[in-house]
Design a protein that fits this description.
α2 links the parallel β1 (about 30-35) and β2. The protein has helices at about 5-25, 40-50, 70-80, 100-105, 135-140, 180-195, 215-235, 250-270, 285-295, 310-325; strands at about 30-35, 60-65, 85-90, 170-175, 200-205, 240-245, 275-280. The protein has ten helices and seven strands. It has a four-stranded parallel β-sheet, sandwiched between helices. The protein has a three-stranded parallel β-sheet with strand order 6-5-7, with helices on both faces. With about 325 residues, it is an alpha/beta fold. The model is unreliable at about 20-25 and about 120-160 (pLDDT under 50). α6 (about 180-195) crosses α7.
């Protein structure tokens, strides 16, 4: 006797549901969040931002700039819980950084290091940059490279080579924030908090920026994309400009970036009200350095960064969904 068509459909649906449930059980998904790290407040805002993910996933956070020790610890914890798929969320502002390329190498997604190795934990670094301290700061960081901690030296004091991490689970690496629509939305909110007369206001988006010139060009291009989204949402500002301050670059590059910012603010303030918005993930000191650079100039500022803001949840969810679909 033939089985009615609707019965066949039900059987197929039940079979698919069972297969999906079985697949899910076999491949447990976990989340490893990579973030720069900073002071207590900085780390707290990141922990708060990813808290909602814990409802559906096992979550570990690895603070540091592509820090292998922190990343390995997070991966080990997830794998010990039976995780077989790890979505690595990069809570960084831009893809155009040696940090991101080193992440790719450590996670086995890049065959060779593209830059000089960075082996350091950055979670305790104070980012309050005072101009008079710039030389000492640059000397200590060595442009974020060659800084080898005691944990990365062998018993003879020789430098250990940076190697890919030990990973059993399948890795899904997501993109940093870049020009995701959520970034433009949050920055638009920050602007509106300070804006009174948009047609007479010049907006300046200020990001940290990298040391490398090519990376900086690409970083600025991403900022311009964000600016264009803001224009489409609020197409009545006099101007929107984008700059990077390049805190960790050599002194001559740092000084040029500083003067470019000061010059832009001086010129814009002659015929408009200037609003400066930091394109930073969380408050930890870099924003204070921006203010110090602008001593004596006239502008509006509240120092609010992307976090805390609940809209970031959409970026995280979008990133996980996209990663698992690829």
């Amino acid at each position: 006797m033939k089985v009615p068509n609707f019965s066949c459909s039900i059987l197929i649906i039940l079979s698919l549901c069972f297969s999906y449930a079985n697949l899910t059980a076999q491949h447990k998904v976990g989340i490893l969040v990579l973030a720069h790290g900073g002071n207590k407040n900085w780390n707290h805002t990141v922990n708060e931002a990813v808290e909602h993910l814990k409802k559906n996933y096992e979550v570990e956070i690895a603070f540091g700039m592509a820090d292998p020790k922190s990343m390995q610890k997070g991966i080990n914890k997830l794998e010990e819980k039976g995780i077989t798929k790890i979505v690595v969320l990069q809570l960084f502002i831009s893809s155009f950084s040696p940090i991101i390329r080193q992440n790719e190498y450590l996670l086995g997604l890049r065959k060779e290091l593209a830059d000089e190795p960075m082996i350091m934990n950055h979670t305790s670094m104070n980012h309050s940059h005072i101009d008079s301290q710039q030389n000492n700061y640059n000397n200590s960081l060595k442009n974020h490279t060659h800084h080898i901690s005691n944990d990365n030296m062998n018993h003879n004091g020789e430098e250990l080579k940076l190697k890919p991490l030990s990973i059993k689970a399948k890795i899904y690496l997501t993109d940093p924030l870049n020009d995701h629509p959520v970034v433009a939305e949050i920055l638009t909110d920050r602007i509106r908090e300070l804006s009174n007369s948009p047609e007479n206001e010049t907006i300046i988006l200020v990001a940290h920026g990298p040391n490398d010139e090519e990376d900086n060009k690409k970083w600025l291009s991403t900022l311009e994309s964000i600016a264009e989204q803001i224009r489409k949402e609020s197409n009545n500002f006099k101007n929107i400009f984008c700059l990077t301050v390049r805190d960790d670059a050599p002194k001559e590059i740092y000084e040029i970036a500083k003067e470019n910012l000061r010059s832009l603010v001086r010129q814009a303030s002659k015929n408009s009200s200037v609003i400066i918005i930091p394109v930073l993930l969380s408050q930890g000191g870099i924003e204070k350095g921006i203010v110090e650079r602008l001593d004596g100039l006239t502008y509006k500022w509240n120092g609010k960064t992307l976090l805390p803001n609940k809209k970031i949840i959409r970026f995280l969810d979008d990133s996980i969904k996209k990663a698992l679909q690829e």
